[in-house]
Amino acid sequence: MILPALIAIGVVIGYPIVRAIQLSTTEFNPLAGADPTPVGTANFEQLVDDPIFWEALRNTAIYTFGSVAIAAIIGAMVALLVENLSGRARVVKTLLLTPWAVPFVVVAFLFRYMFDAQSGVINALLMDLNITDQPVDWLVSSTWALPTVVAANVWAQTPFFVLVFGAALAAVPNEVIESARVDSTRGLAMARHIKLPYMRNAALIASLLMVVANFNDFGKIWAMTEGGPGYATTTLVVWVYRLAFTSFELGYASAVGVIWLVLLLLFAIAYARMLRRGS
Amino acid sequence: MAVAVSERSAPAARPAPRARRQRGGRAARNVGIAVALFFALAPIYWMLSTSFKPELEATQSDPSLLPNEYTMGNYQSLFNGAMPFGSFVVNSVITAAAAALISLVLSAFGGYALSKGNFRLREPMSFLILLTRMLPLVVLLGPLYLLLLNANLINTMLGLIIGYISFAVPFGVWLMKGFFDGVPKEVIEAARVDGYPRWQILLRVALPLTIPGLLTTATFIFIDVWNNIIYPLALINTIENQVLPSGLMLSFTGQFKTNWGGMMAASVLTSIPLLIAFFAIQRSMVRGLTAGAVAGE
């Protein structure tokens, strides 16, 4: 009974993986009409010396872990704030989740507009408050483009953490809260010493999911900057796409992809270890 | 309702110092919630407000909180302007619905086998399916492109649907496995003892018990597909055949780069189906959880 699903997965995932590994040892431009030329490990040797590879790797790390760290911290705080809302006030919880339901391309558009150098509301606010006296070139500046893209991602991703932490908080046993209260533990102390430890596992699992999502995130970055200016917001996924579909170096692109598969696998193993040690 | 009443009937006489401290804490909490709400909703408000502004007002460097002059022009020109927005919508709806439906059928079979099947490779296969969820789609895209190129399916809806299915099925199988795990083994066993053939157990016994799961899975897949931009960008090469995210991205990066009003109007319309799906799934997720709890008794 699993056969139909397996065949579907085999054709559209199994085959591409094998083919990607095979292509990574060739030089291949599909538009040139010629067949792939085997080049051995040349692609991988070129990769190590390619400054763009290292820049993309750095950008990927900042985008992936930066977004997750910030969104998880804000998400935990918000979850603690709205934990005890009840009755009609619960609508606040739903409203706080809305950014999650906004399509990625719309997130990108919203932040492109708000952070536009000329017509953006962020620059207008900063200048009204005299924080800066001339507009900041957010998305066209090689310094600010990556932080701006991270900001957009944090906005879109925080609700997920609010939801997960909310569920984790709801699972804290009442007796624990009660006995802490009897010991007159309240407010911040309660949050830090009693509730946070219960949120640890939820935090690990949720951030694993989001790390993987960010690692593979293409839509938001591409619709905001197309990886630019220069390579300032080019993460690995954006770079592979640029190589494969704008410069049509499919062999080289596949080599990057294979390295990336290895990295992801290492990360997954490290994470599984961490999770097992935690429990 | 009941909760609102109990709030009102909170003890009227509280010890004074603790009340003051609580009130202070509550005020701080409310400020925090207000700040959080502001950050979550301000961009959405800004999108709505801008979508009703005339072009000049949307581009001015000193933005107005509410449109000084309301216009529907941004929405109208989406449908009779130079951009094939209508085609984007139609293509998006058709491909997302088809991909969700096909993936759902495949996922239901696969998920059932992984949850209730009796075969040796069940455990490693489940893990493998989970692992494919972590795969970078872009690495698979090059070879998939070649595959579809050889099959003459580049720039067709069918090709795009196949692309979508490639990431939707592993995800769907994993979700459906979880929902089938909630169906007690005894129910399946009882049907088997009654002599039902295997496919009938799935159709008549297991599936009806997982209807919330099916709905949730279909909606999750729909949301995933509706959001995807990399597959249509790579597999479709004419603007009329694009779907919403890719079509809008191409239009508003090129020709209509600073048409902010139009961009925000398109954003509003693109968000609506996803917002509906999101709130629909919220309810069915709760129902799925309660169904599981009842079945577990």
Automatic annotation (TrEMBL), chain B:
Q: Which Pfam families match?
A: BPD_transp_1
Would you tell me the Gene Ontology cellular component terms? plasma membrane
Kindly list the residue ranges recorded as spanning the membrane: 27-48, 88-115, 127-148, 154-180, 201-223, 260-281
Topological category with respect to the lipid bilayer: Multi-pass membrane protein
Gene3D superfamilies (alphabetical): MetI-like
Q: Which UniProt keywords apply?
A: Cell membrane, Membrane, Transmembrane, Transmembrane helix, Transport
The record's section on SUPFAM superfamilies has: MetI-like
For whether the record's keyword set contains GTP-binding, the answer is no
Limits of the ABC transmembrane type-1 domain: 89-281
* Entry keyword annotation includes Membrane: yes
Alphabetical list of InterPro entries matching this protein: BP-dep_ABC_trans_perm, MetI-like, MetI-like_sf
One of this protein's GO BP terms? transmembrane transport
- Where do the segments described as Disordered lie? 1-23
Residue ranges with Low complexity bias: 1-16
- What compartments host this protein? Cell membrane
Which family does the record claim for this protein?
Belongs to the binding-protein-dependent transport system permease family.
Q: Which PANTHER family match?
A: INNER MEMBRANE ABC TRANSPORTER PERMEASE PROTEIN YCJP (PTHR32243:SF18), MALTOSE TRANSPORT SYSTEM PERMEASE-RELATED (PTHR32243)
**Can you name this protein?**
Carbohydrate ABC transporter permease
- Which species is this record about? Phytoactinopolyspora halophila
